Amino acid sequence: MSVAARRSLDDPGLHDEFLGLVGEGDEFGAVELVTTLLDDGVTPQRVMMELIAGTQTRVGELWAANEWTVAREHAATAISERALAAVAARSTVRPTRGRVAIACVDGEWHALPTRILAEMLRLDGWRVDYLGANVPGPHLITHLHQTGPDVVALSCMIATRLPRAHAAITACKAAGVPVIAGGRGFGPGGRYAQHLGADAWAAGAEEAVQRLARHWPPHQPDPQLSAYLGDEEYTYVVRNRPELISTAMHRLTEAYPAMRDYNQRQRDSTAEDMAHIVDFLASALYVSETSIFTDFVEWTNGVLQARGVPPVALRVGLETVRAQLRDYPTATAVISAGIRVLGE
């Protein structure tokens, strides 16, 4: 009688196998694979971080490269969530530490990273209130008053949510609950997290577990650092967002003739891109960080080129927004920096 070979995360082919399963929507196969790994002695933490989280990163890259559709990306994420649930069902630990509330900021829908964090903290002995995606600030604060957690873990994956993240952090601290922030929306190395008043930042679930396992909370940040964010230029951009977008769309049609042949779907996508330009500009102004906008322009240019849209289209779009803000020197300087990213 032959004995089945033990599965190991050290086998690079296994990661491709799991990617294939989630990409094909094979829930049974994905769940079977992770449970086999657990049976073969692989720790739940490694399965979650190396296999599920690692695969999800690749899924996002495939979408950005236009190799996967949005629908396929969403379907794959759903399978990853089912695989994660299977791992969680096999891994229960009695709470021995404090209580933590985990939430995505208002408007943030990338929930899988926070779900992985929730399971990692449960394995480390925390009592976890997992609140999921898109948690409105007032609802989060109501939960804190009702349950009294020791800490809030707040996720922000997209920089356009930073003003809302700041509001949530400020409200949590006013309620007497310290905050650990996470997610790439807080910038490289989490450099915006302290600026927004967070008590700590973690690059991922493993680092968050380690930080919370130490003395908590750490040294409190100076509340004056985050007391006065946003200025009149930020306020103008936010208040005039609809007009900035609609005017830019009108001028874009005139300045970029190829757009006249767009179908409705392409026009809708272009309107979304214009909205992103305005929203990332607002966030850059809010925290006085030009790189928020330039990083967005660089990433968007890559995504659009993968879809056959030439850089000139993005350049013209940026110029149409800049022309409307000629009386606002900081905003125009930020957009000009974004245009320079595109080169000549």
From TrEMBL:
Matching Pfam families: B12-binding, B12-binding_2
SUPFAM superfamilies: Cobalamin (vitamin B12)-binding domain, Globin-like
Keyword Metal-binding set for record: yes
Domain B12-binding: 97-223
Name by which UniProt lists this protein: Cobalamin-dependent protein
Lineage: Bacteria, Bacillati, Actinomycetota, Actinomycetes, Micromonosporales
Keyword annotations: Cobalt, Metal-binding
